[in-house]
Design brief:
The protein is mostly helical. It has a single domain, classed as Rhopdopsin 7-helix transmembrane proteins, CATH 1.20.1070.10. A two-stranded antiparallel ribbon has the order 1-2. It starts with a helix and ends with a helix. It comes from Gopherus evgoodei (Goodes thornscrub tortoise). This is Olfactory receptor.
């Protein structure tokens, strides 16, 4: 594109988009989103409240769960304003700076959640494969430091993204295909050379989600190897049962994000409706379901929640 076009136009706003083909029922869809956000925020807040108030839950597994609840809360809060404004109020405009800020927090929280899931896998690995040293390895100060490292890693790799996007001229269409801002969508609207952003985006994906998922897989290979060496079938099931909640959280997080990454890079002919629905699943379902999964599988949490409700 010519240099003239590159300097003549830079939109002051981006336009967000709802679910394609369902514009007439956006108000009804907004009710679903409102319910999802209410249950996500209340569920994760209750988990945090219970863990904070009960000293018996101040142990590594529940500290990791509280970190997961914080990232899920943040992800809900980061996406809620624009999604509800599109579906509830039909307000589609978002300024460039607001868009860059939103995509920064969305990618930051996704990266942080991936790191927390890895930390939880490490917790399960030590608890099952080296139980005698569990208390000495996973002390609360050490878990806190690991959590801080997770956040710092996320900030370090995500912080350059908004600055890389700000240097572009957006002289093409300013219409995004989602009701929130993410890096992949925004950089496609630039009329400049986006190869650096594309390479950096791939680097981030491999370094964070790719590496974390690989390490989680390897940790479960070692866990399965240890469990299969247990002679008692009942003990084997009991040990595996302690991993069910984490495995569900891992699947809820990695399956949609992997599917969406594959579609963005390889599935150009796929249905826009399917892409949009999958994008909502990967952002909204984990914060909604993680409190349910952990509450159902943790007897301690279930008992405290019953007392809390009464």
């Amino acid at each position: 594109m010519s240099a003239v076009n590159d300097t003549n136009y830079n939109p002051a706003v981006f336009l967000l988009t709802g679910i394609p083909g369902l514009e007439d029922v956006h108000l009804w869809i907004s009710i679903v989103f409102c319910l999802v956000y209410v249950f996500s925020i209340v569920g994760n807040s209750v988990i945090l409240f219970i863990i904070k108030r009960d000293p018996s839950l101040h142990e590594p597994m529940y500290i990791c769960l509280s970190m997961l609840a914080v990232t899920d809360l943040g992800l809900s809060i980061a996406t809620m304003p624009t999604i509800l404004s599109v579906y509830l109020f039909n307000s589609r405009e978002i300024s460039l700076n607001a868009c860059f800020a939103q995509l920064f927090f969305i990618h930051l929280l996704i990266c942080s959640e991936s790191s927390v899931l890895l930390l939880m896998a490490f917790d399960r690995f030590i608890a099952i494969c080296n139980p005698l040293r569990y208390a000495s390895i996973l002390t609360l100060p050490r878990i806190s430091k690991m959590g801080l490292v997770c956040v710092l890693r996320a900030v370090a790799v995500i912080l350059p993204i908004p600055f890389l996007l700000q240097r572009f001229r957006y002289c093409q269409s300013n219409i995004l295909s989602h009701s929130y801002c993410i890096n992949q969508e925004v950089m496609k609207l630039a009329c400049s050379d986006i190869r650096v952003n594309s390479i950096y985006g791939l680097f981030i994906t491999v370094l964070t989600v790719g590496l974390d998922s690989l390490l989680i897989f390897l940790s479960y290979v070692m866990i399965l190897k240890t469990v299969l060496s247990i002679t008692s079938y009942a003990d084997c099931l009991r040990v595996l049962n302690t991993c069910v909640s984490h495995l569900c959280a891992v699947l809820l997080f990695y399956m949609p994000i992997t599917g969406l990454s594959v579609i963005h890079r390889l599935g150009e002919g796929s249905s826009p409706l399917f892409q949009t629905v999958l994008s909502y699943i990967y952002l909204l379902v984990p914060p909604l379901m993680n409190p349910v999964v952990y509450s159902v599988k943790s007897k301690h949490l279930r008992r405290i929640i019953r007392v809390f409700i009464k």
